[in-house]
From TrEMBL:
CDD domains: STKc_PknB_like (cd14014). One of its GO terms (molecular function) is protein serine/threonine kinase activity. ATP binds at K43. It comes from Propionibacterium acidifaciens F0233. InterPro entries: Kinase-like_dom_sf, Prot_kinase_dom, Protein_kinase_ATP_BS, Ser/Thr_kinase_AS. The keyword Transmembrane helix applies. This is non-specific serine/threonine protein kinase. Residues 308-362 are annotated as: Disordered. Residues 14-274 form the Protein kinase domain. Keywords: ATP-binding, Kinase, Membrane, Nucleotide-binding, Serine/threonine-protein kinase, Transferase, Transmembrane, Transmembrane helix.
Length: 661
């Protein structure tokens, strides 16, 4: 915001400290929350946006959506300030710089670090997509790093600016207009101005490529329009990485958005590959190719009166030619340009022999202009027409012969547990080879985990499952777990390390008589996942069993009043689907005895617990983060806590009173 001085007021509750960045929609300032003394970040939109009543109204309408985006890898939305000429979004302050800053220093990252970081980014995208929010501007500049980020904790990052681009363009789910950075724009955003969830996955794929190669795949000589044209037309230059990693990258960078994986599926794939590439060094920065290989043959545009070279007749198609996108010299900056309505010109693609006049005829000036304009956007228009018609830009992959395969991916749980199930059905043996992959985000996790393995059809007898590879598994006992579920198994794969995964395998004797075996196997796998989810989210069950799957939240409980210069008693209470559990705390501070088995399961024990001062210096915390004491009198105070994957916990307000009061 031009002309702002340090310490300027932002509304009644914040004071600006210093400008820390600037983008297409506004400037980012470090600020202080005058109510708590906390450092926050404030994005001040440019005055022309603040003067747009419709835009301000959309931000106010979408405030609840932005507030609902609570995830460890998303920069939290705190407040919206609308006052006079000020329109500002107040967010969490993240002190470790951006992923762009790291790339500016190191150029490339080791594949293991890059994949772990991308898994966290994709987790954030998956969470936003659950709330129908499209990011639209995924790039390293918008990935902010916590101070502890590094090779040992590459998932300690947060994605910023969620929802802002969509609100700027007027729709939170499928938006129209050119906003974004050309090097990261998806083909469908370029040729239609529309972006959905698959566009975010594409941009994440571009960023993953850049983390590995030191450059985006289509960067090179020419203007932004040349770069955008390559997104639509050119093949992705191949990198020297293991084949499974390249398959993941190329899948995320499919031209057809319908063939890209979802964000959660891509995140799980990243985690599965981390161990495969963990020992590989970073690639040397890759130079741009001299020429970009076309993804498919160019289509020839013919106008009426231009004789067809082919002997056979072709149908005539009428195509709406949009104006050429307004893109400038290439750069990494975000562009914000609405796509304005236009009156379409009708151009005929192809002619029949009967329509061609005998002998050549020179096209007029208007037709020459149309041909040139059509050539500039032909690939995009053709692709858009195909996709709008439900087709594909390229033929679908053909399935290899062999077992019928199916897969299913759960949404990551609040504890950070991700579960992916894969089934391979062999009709000749009448059995399914079931592989279950458990992943952990910020904290190590321990089982046992509940898995429902049903019969081939509803009502069928439970199969006699054989668990392989040394996994400890037994039937779920209702008397022990409190969960009454048919065909339930208690599976203990051991500890799942933070940012990594563990797999268990089982042989399941089931036979599918349905003629469509592929659909039957997928339906069986989906039914297993749905039954498992229903069991662990049953609100009628009051139990502490399967805490990693059943824990919904954690309440930080303190006394309503504490005397100054005394220790603060804190209880961490689990919140199950049935509600808050006051009788079985996860942890108490000051601690006595061993940590609870629940805390070991969801956070790796005391090492996963940290308290911090939420009272602007009125509290002191020991160096291990486990004990808190009142330091000075305060009318209203809170204590913050981090427990495993729950990184944004805050107690209710309490008073610090003077002695004798």
């Amino acid at each position: 915001m031009v002309g702002k001085k340090f310490d300027d007021a932002l509304g009644a509750s914040y004071r600006l400290v210093e400008k820390v960045g600037q983008g297409a929609t506004g400037a980012v300032w470090a600020a202080t929350d005058l109510r708590t003394g906390e450092r926050v970040a404030a994005k001040l939109l440019y005055p022309q946006h603040a003067a747009d009543r419709d835009l301000v109204g959309r931000f106010i309408q979408e405030r609840a959506v932005l507030e609902s985006l609570r995830h460890p890898n998303i920069v939290g939305f705190r407040d919206l300030v609308v006052e006079g000429e000020q329109l500002a979004i107040v967010m969490d302050f993240v002190a470790g710089g951006s992923l762009r800053d790291r790339l500016d220093t190191s150029r490339t990252l080791p594949p293991g670090t890059a994949l772990a970081a991308m898994a966290a980014v994709l987790d954030a995208l998956a969470a936003s997509h659950e709330h129908d929010v499209v990011h639209r501007d995924v790039k390293p500049d918008n990935v902010l790093l916590d101070p502890e980020w590094g090779p040992q904790d590459p998932g300690a990052l947060r994605v910023s600016d969620f929802g802002i681009a969509s609100v700027m363009m007027g729709d939170a789910k499928s938006t129209t207009g050119l906003i974004g950075t050309p090097e990261y724009m998806s083909p469908e955003l370029i040729y239609s101005g529309r972006a959905g969830f698959a566009s975010d996955v594409y941009s994440a794929g571009i960023m993953a490529y850049e983390l590995l190669a030191g450059r985006t795949p289509f960067a090179g000589p020419g203007t932004d329009y040349a770069v955008a044209h390559r997104h639509v037309q050119s093949r992705v230059p191949v990198l020297d990485v293991p084949e499974p990693l390249w398959e993941l990258l190329s899948g995320m960078l499919e031209k057809d958005p319908g063939r890209r994986p979802g964000a959660q599926e891509a995140a799980a794939s990243c985690r599965e590959l981390v161990l495969l590439v963990a020992q590989l060094p970073a690639l040397e920065p890759v130079e741009a190719p001299e020429e970009f290989e076309g993804a498919h043959p160019m289509t020839v545009v013919r106008s009426p009166g231009v004789e067809s070279a082919a002997a056979e007749s072709r149908p005539t198609a009428v195509v709406d030619i949009s104006p050429e996108p307004e893109l400038d010299a290439p750069s990494g900056a975000t562009r914000l340009r609405p796509v304005t309505p236009h009156q379409p010109e009708q151009v005929q693609l192809g002619t029949t022999g009967a329509e061609s006049a005998p002998g050549p005829r020179r096209p007029g000036k208007r037709m020459v202009s149309l041909i040139i304009g059509a050539a500039m956007v032909l690939v995009g228009v053709s692709a858009f027409a195909i996709l709008r018609g439900g087709g594909h830009l390229f033929p679908p992959h053909r399935r290899n012969s062999g077992p019928v395969k199916a897969s299913q991916q759960d949404q990551a749980l609040p504890t950070g547990l991700g579960i992916r199930r894969e089934a391979g059905y062999d009709a000749s043996s009448g059995s399914v080879n079931l592989t279950i992959t458990y992943t952990a985000q910020k904290a190590p996790l321990e089982g046992p985990f509940l898995e429902v393995v049903p019969g081939a059809a509803d009502g069928a007898a439970c199969p006699d499952v054989t668990w392989l590879g040394g996994a400890r598994a037994g039937h779920n006992l209702t008397t022990t777990s409190g969960l009454s579920v048919d065909c339930g198994w208690s599976v203990d794969p051991g500890q799942v390390p933070a940012g990594q995964n563990l797999q268990v395998q089982a042989q399941v004797p089931v036979t599918f008589d349905d003629g469509d075996e592929e659909s039957a196997v997928q339906a069986w796998l989906d039914r297993a996942a749905a039954a498992t989810t229903a069991a662990v989210t049953d609100s009628s069950v009051e139990s502490t069993h399967y805490p990693v799957q059943r824990l919904q939240d954690i309440t930080v409980k303190t006394p309503d009043k504490v005397v100054n210069q005394s220790g603060l008693e804190i209880s961490l209470l689990p919140v199950w689907p049935s509600g808050q559990d006051d009788l079985n705390p996860l942890y108490k501070s000051p601690s006595t005895g061993k940590p609870s088995s629940m805390l070991e399961a969801v956070a790796g024990g005391e090492s996963g617990v940290r308290f911090s001062d939420g009272c602007a210096g009125a509290l002191t915390v020991t160096s291990d983060g486990l004990n808190v004491a009142a330091q000075q009198v305060a009318d209203s105070c809170t204590v913050d806590a981090q427990v495993g994957n729950f990184t944004d916990l805050t107690s209710s307000s309490f008073q610090i009173a003077a002695h004798g009061s």
